[in-house]
Amino acid sequence: MKKIFITAIMLIASFCNAQINLILDTNFGNNGTVSLGPNLGGLLSYHFLNDKIMVQNYDLTDPFLIYSKITMLNNNGSLSTDFGIGGSFLIPTYYNSNNDADFVHSIDSSYLYMISGKRYLYNGTLDPTYGNNGQTQIYPNEIYRKLLPTGKLIIRTVNNIYQYTQSGNLDTTFGVNGSIFTNSFLTNYGYPIFNYQQTFVPLLSSNSILEYDGNYSQLRKMNYITGIYDTSFGVNGNAQFNNGNSGSIMKFHVLDDYSFINYLFDSNNTSLYLLTRTFSTGLLDYSFGTNGKIDLPLVINGINLLYNQDFTVTQGNYIIPVLDDNFPRKLYLANFTNNGLSTINSQNLLDTGITTQMVNPSDKIFISLKDNYLYLFVNTNYIKRYIILQNYLSTNENELSESINFINPFQNELNLFTNTKVKLVEVFDEQGRLLLRSKDTKLNTTSLLKGIYILKITTATNKVFSKKAIKN
């Protein structure tokens, strides 16, 4: 007699394995991918704002890279035609005598804020009402700029913090005539690039900010109103992020509880990589992995791996883009949890289907989360998007998911038994390819081979659940 397996059992099993499922979003661009077009070079910056995606690349139409191109996409990957001219505009690439590239460090619903101090309108022109003819002052040895939730701007130099008003003028009510002197210095002034701004200086609660100084391997918490570092944070004001190894941080992610996951390489052996977790107090979590760390394997499924310098975090999963050691290189996604290597779509390595000519993976691939989507920014002008089907549900969602049952394994017909109104049922294989789609709760599955499949169920209230199903 066939048994109906209650979905809760499947969810518990998924939770124990802590795996996630990724489905290629075929509604994004051309079957899940967007190409920004020809004559574009390296990625300078990207940002998400509501349902928009902003991307900035070098413009290669001029051999001297005089301009960069800023493009705005709609949520479906199409050009946002009310931005610039038909969805994009050009700006001068370099802004100082060091030939540092100008990039977007922040955006809001009306403006683009540049590391050069300029503020652009969405039509591609400088905002003449901002600062001095559209630009704030630039200071020697600037390290980062951060747009605060209040709309004010802070600028960090080696020893000072300056604050500017929403109109781009020095805020003379801040500190002494608009600036404060910090009680310790920050030395990364030779690194004015987007990845540093996004990676190493996240804002925290209570007017605090984390600052990572790669030259001294210091990760500290500072109050950006007073300029004083928190000496109770970590050990003597320095966060613990490795367990005795000579690790250097490539990126860290701050979690909702203000702890953070650190992605490091071993300074004594740069081919070795590891993950650690630091509590919100700044102390290392020695229960994470083995003795406080997860050593990332250099070989998975017989494939020699090159680790990218970016990673992302979702629901206890730490997803890292990796390349194989052949040429041209294939791009995979590897997933780790607090206990080590886990899976995506039941696989130790998820093949993204992307092959790249890149020689060195460093700083060439970005991975990011927005809402229920995972984005890959690859090889200068290529964006791929997946839908994340979480195996973790809130109590109400769990109760709703448990009310959707089916006979598992199934054969040539799959029936959903539920009182919940279902809008759409989609069946994917383990590689994320869409095989069946139905608005009915009864699916004819004669075309499916024996194997493991992923059901994506969308309810009438637009709740989305993923479930594994087996055909035998």
From TrEMBL:
Give the Gene3D superfamilies listed for this entry.
Answer: 2.80.10.50
InterPro entries tied to this protein: Secre_tail
Q: Which UniProt keywords apply?
A: Signal
Q: Which domain of life is it from?
A: Bacteria
Q: In the UniProt record, does the keyword Signal occur? A: yes
Limits of the Secretion system C-terminal sorting domain: 408-469
Per the UniProt entry, the signal peptide is 1-18
Matches recorded under NCBIfam families:
Por_Secre_tail
Supply the Pfam families for this chain. Por_Secre_tail
Q: Which protein are we looking at? A: T9SS type A sorting domain-containing protein
